[in-house]
Design a protein that fits this description.
Elements: H1 2-32, H2 50-55, H3 59-92, H4 98-110, H5 113-124, H6 133-157, H7 162-169, H8 174-203, H9 206-211, H10 219-229, H11 234-256, H12 259-263
Helix pairs in contact: 1-11, 3-6, 3-8, 3-10, 4-6, 6-8, 7-8
């Protein structure tokens, strides 16, 4: 009994240290974001909301946030519409070349981002799609589609096909079977995949660096350019705001669906 209690206490301490290791950088960023000085220092000598207030006056960040939000929303919508039938075809049907399609959908995850970005630049530049919403949308779909396809395909693999077969045997059309039986059962997986696509698109910086320009720039690229020349805590304040928004999204999914159900 004593050995069991010691073992349980050891694992609790180990888990607490692991959480501290993972969340420690975020806590440091949170503390630094309240430093009123024009340079990074830890621990700060005083606390102020100066940099949070100046975020609203930073036109580059506000404009980049707007572009990233619009781009991520459109990317999520288009990617989800494309990923659901793709996952359905790969998971439910057996046809020649099915393995090729699985490899094709997951290939962007295996190619280095800088190589993929250069390839997209060479393809989109002659079409005059650089620094445009269609060009950035195409690039973001390339990197988000594998995540959504895999998430939806996992939901379909855990769904017994007998439910769909029962609906078809009762006279339902394939389209009606999908909307009334299949989609409601895989909806948590679709929502989880859409959330992942949104976060990946919003945070994408490597591909976007090749395709943006003065006319159209996303928030991660603006942050990248900002830290090249300045080292004030404004980026820390921006990071805290983005983390807070991400946590709000996770809590919303947990509230509506349950996070474990949505992911798995």
């Amino acid at each position: 009994m004593i050995a069991r209690r010691i073992g349980a206490g050891f694992w609790r301490v180990l888990v607490a240290l692991l959480y501290l290791f993972l969340l420690g950088p975020l806590l440091i960023v949170l503390i630094i974001s309240f430093d009123p000085n024009n340079y990074l220092s830890f621990p700060p000598q005083s606390f102020s909301f100066r940099w949070y207030l100046e975020l609203l006056d930073n036109e580059a960040f506000v404009r980049g946030f707007r572009v990233s939000l619009i781009l991520a929303a459109i990317t999520t919508l288009v990617t989800t519409i494309l990923a659901v039938p793709a996952a359905l075809a790969v998971s439910r049907y057996r046809f020649r070349g099915a393995g090729f399609f699985v490899t094709f959908f997951t290939m962007p995850l295996m190619i280095p981002a800088i190589v993929l970005g250069l390839g997209l630049l060479l393809v989109l530049s002659p079409l005059r799609l650089t620094a445009t919403y269609p060009g950035l949308l195409a690039a973001h779909i390339v990197v988000t589609l594998p995540f959504v396809v895999r998430t939806v395909a996992t939901s379909l693999m855990t769904l017994a096909p007998e439910y769909e077969e029962a609906a078809l045997s009762l006279g339902a059309t394939p389209w009606r079977t999908f909307w009334r039986v299949t989609f409601p059962l895989i909806r948590p997986g679709v929502i989880a995949g859409a959330a992942i696509a949104f976060l990946v698109s919003f945070d994408e910086v490597v591909l976007t660096l090749f395709l943006v320009g003065p006319r159209l720039t996303t928030l991660p690229v603006e942050v990248f350019h900002y830290v090249e020349y300045r080292t004030d805590p404004q980026v820390a304040a921006l990071s805290v705001v983005i983390v807070a928004i991400s946590l709000a999204g996770v809590m919303l999914i947990e509230r509506v669906l349950g996070l474990r159900r949505a992911i798995g």
